[in-house]
Design a protein that fits this description.
Elements lengths: L1 H15 L6 H10 L1 H32 L17 H8 L3 H29 L2 H28 L4 H7 L1 H16 L1 H32 L10 H40 L3 H10 L3 H6 L6 H14 L2 H12 L4 H23 L11
Helix pairs in contact: 1-2, 1-10, 2-10, 3-4, 3-9, 3-10, 4-5, 5-6, 5-9, 5-13, 5-15, 6-7, 6-8, 6-13, 6-15, 8-9, 10-11, 10-14, 11-13, 13-15, 14-15
């Protein structure tokens, strides 16, 4: 929190001085993120109790039958798209609600409902095969992040493995699909993203009508005021996190450029990973400037590393600060394990079968 506060002071002072150093712009961007964050989160937060009640009837017996806590179902959504709230509502063990909603949802959930559909939509068709290969390598090393985050959160190694068995199975299916039928997988991810957007919008509309008129046909929804409180607290953290992340990028840019040369990647490829720790979309926008090895490495890195230093860290500091260490440890260990695998196993592999996507 002190680091975030220092970032807010840095950004605020630079804004007062006319944004001479660029930190003031990041300060403003942090606050302007309130709108997009509210649109992507509020409706799902409001609907989480209802979804937990409806889905729980099927999910709880199924997950108990395989020895996993139903909270892990919430990790199919991104941490800031309702995954945290859904995991908490479904949890039998509160520890698993925190673990599934923070660590697993920020790694697997974010990849499933955000990084893959957004990436496949943004990236040029000729680069999708390299991005897909990177995602596959990131999924291979995802257990490193999930287990590391679980151990930091206080779970045993066996608990981490057992609780994540459904995610591991789904990750294998995703890898097989991206390798064998990439075109159909892209369409499927886009449909999934549109479906989640529709549910979030419906929840937001219902919550707004209840707030304005006092009437809601769907009983049991969380009040929109509570959801907006969560969003506002994230925005406050991002006032400091974006200037702090900008400072970190500038400090690490030269060492990362040198490291990129040693690893055989262009400076733009290393910059993409640094930016990806803050936000996925600007990192993906750099793909045309990256070399092939860097495109694979960035896809792999984003599986665990996406949005760590902005949205995800801001969310956890606001919602459950005790889990911040687990979030940082899990996402960073998974991201760097994926980077190593991409560098040493991915190489400059050709586009292969995935290129027809």
């Amino acid at each position: 929190m002190l680091i975030m506060a220092a970032g807010a002071v840095l950004g605020g002072i630079d804004r007062l001085l006319g944004n001479r150093l660029g930190y003031g712009k990041k300060f403003e961007e942090g606050f302007l993120f309130l709108g997009p964050i509210a649109l992507s989160m509020t409706g799902m937060i409001c609907l989480a109790p209802v979804l937990a009640d409806v889905l729980g009837r099927a999910v709880i017996p199924l997950y108990r039958a395989i020895g996993a806590d139903p909270a892990m179902f919430g990790s199919l959504l991104a941490i800031d798209m309702g995954g945290y709230q859904l995991a908490g509502e479904l949890a039998v063990d509160p520890r698993m609600g925190s673990y599934g909603g923070v660590v697993a949802a920020s790694i697997f959930g974010c990849t499933l409902v955000f990084t893959i559909p957004v990436g496949m939509g943004m990236i040029r068709s000729q680069d999708r095969g390299l991005f897909a290969k990177g995602i596959m390598l990131g999924l291979v090393t995802m257990p490193v992040g999930l287990i590391t985050g679980g151990l930091i959160a206080g779970l045993s190694l066996w608990e981490c493995i057992r609780q994540n068995l459904p995610l591991f199975a789904l990750a294998l299916l995703l890898m097989a699909g991206l390798w064998r039928i990439p075109g159909k997988m892209i369409r499927g991810f886009c449909i999934l993203a549109d479906g989640i957007k529709a549910v979030i919008t419906l929840g937001l509309v219902l919550a707004a009508v209840e707030y304005l008129c006092g009437w809601n046909p769907v009983k049991g929804m969380a009040p929109i005021g509570e959801a907006m409180g969560v969003v506002s607290s994230i925005g406050i953290v991002m006032l400091g996190s974006l200037p702090a992340a900008e400072l970190l990028q500038r400090i690490l840019k030269k060492p990362f450029t040198l490291l990129g040369k040693r690893l055989g990647m262009k400076a733009e490829s290393m910059t993409g990973m640094l930016i990806g720790l803050v936000s996925v979309i600007p990192a993906l926008s750099l793909y045309p400037d990256m070399d092939e090895k860097g495109k694979v490495a960035n896809g792999a890195f984003l599986v665990s590393g996406a949005s760590l230093l902005a949205a995800h860290m801001g969310f956890v500091i606001s919602a459950e600060p005790d889990m911040l260490g687990a979030l940082l440890g899990g996402k960073l260990s998974g991201a760097f394990a994926a980077l190593l695998l991409a560098v040493f196993a991915g190489g400059t592999a050709g586009r292969g079968r995935a290129a027809d996507g």
